[in-house]
Amino acid sequence: MPRPTALLFDLDGTLVDSRADLAAAVNAGRRALGRAPLAVDVVTPMIGNGVAVLMERALPGASPAELEAGILEFRAFYDVHCCDATPAYPGIAEALGALQGLPLVVVSNKPAGLSETVLEGAGLRHFFLAVVGGDSTAAKKPDPAPVRRGLELAGARPGRGAVLVGDGPTDIAGGRAAGIATCAVGWGFTPLAALRAEGPDHEALAPEDLPRLFRPR
Known about the structure:
Layout: E1 6-9, H1 19-32, H2 40-43, H3 51-58, H4 64-81, H5 92-98, E2 104-107, H6 112-121, E3 130-132, H7 145-154, E4 162-166, H8 169-177, E5 181-185, H9 192-196, E6 202-204, H10 209-214
């Protein structure tokens, strides 16, 4: 494809492998309610729509009061432990380095402050012009609002020249709703076969595919 006008990146499952820390925070919430811990592989498919939806999935049958208590415990734990075991995926730093010269922005459903902290902890923050979090606009992906905010910060406009790179259905749907192209990644939390059903415009099987696809120079 021609040189894109901007690349927007999801965070969890795209840039960093945060499964262990997110599962630990989920289990802190479950523990506070007397529930047994869940394995990381069980928690992983629940991730992607923000903490409230994650805890709804992780606490089936919980009352509103129990759910609120679980969310509070999750946040208290995760605020302290969000970088304990959340590395950048192998090859991501090299790919982002090869993409320098393009406007790069993170668009995550994680709160902006935590997104910044996680990016710093993984050694990736310096690659990005800006970070849009789940609290940066009135809605989260798949709503187009945060994607459009990311485009604005990148100095780009809606259109097929910009690309949203992500590992979840919310990324593909959010990019499409904002009127930009999408790229599904093959190393994240959602199997690529499931993402193909969402109709992404591009696929990256490994991080090194990103500069090959989007030709920054």
